[in-house]
Amino acid sequence: MYSVKEIYYTLQGEGYHTGRSAIFCRFSGCNLWSGREEDRSKAICKFCDTDFWGTDGVNGGKYDAQALVDQCAALWPEHMNNKFVVCTGGEPALQLDPQLVEHFHQAGFTVAIETNGTLELPPNIDWVCVSPKANTDIIINSGQELKLIYPQAGIRPEDMLSYNFEHYYLQPMDNLDLIENRIKTINYCKNNPQWKLSLQIHKVLNIP
To answer: Which of 140, 149, 171, 200 is the most exposed place for a label (fewest CB within 10 A)?
Structure first.
């Protein structure tokens, strides 16, 4: 059984697929933080802004593989092709397995994952987006998209240059210094054009 915080239909708000219709399947749990506010100060990653604790979100719950895929498919617009599911979290690699990937493919979904890159991934994922965090052992160093939150103490864009990704994105850290962080990120991308700017458009436009 898979523990899922929420499942919903929306537009991807950041990175390469910005603006693309997608089902977001948010798995519960993460290996870098419990998700409980009282544990944030002790977390490896302290800046996460996503609620992935429990299974009480929209369409959240415990699912077997077929039921989970059926729920995702039911949210996709009827008679529309190009089904796209983003497996996110928390850390989806804690739960996503070959069986679930295969069930998604059989239902006609392109499968994407947003991962911190510290855990092995099942094969045959169509789009791998790694968002590295400082003070972690990153073992997934290749894929389609690398999206680094910037500036992030303890990890620099230069540290990523030995990795093998098709697209490299910097995304401003969303905290009290967001305006300054945006300026720093823009300037870094201008001075290092192998990096592209990623903005969280879903926050700017209030896309649920």
So the answer is: 200
- Give the dihedral sign, CA 131/121/44/5: positive
Catalytic residue among 49, 78, 137, 158: 49
What is the assigned CATH class of domain 2-204?
A: alpha beta
Q: Of 14, 17, 24, 109, which is the active-site residue?
A: 24
How much is the average pLDDT of 179-199?
Answer: 98
Domain layout of the chain by residue ranges: 2-204
pLDDT band at 208 (very low <50, low <70, confident <90, very high): confident
Query: Catalytic annotation on 50?
Result: yes
pTM: 0.96
Residue 18 designated active-site: no
DSSP for 34-56, written as a single string: -S-GGGGGG-S--------SSS-
The mean of the pLDDT values for the chain is 97
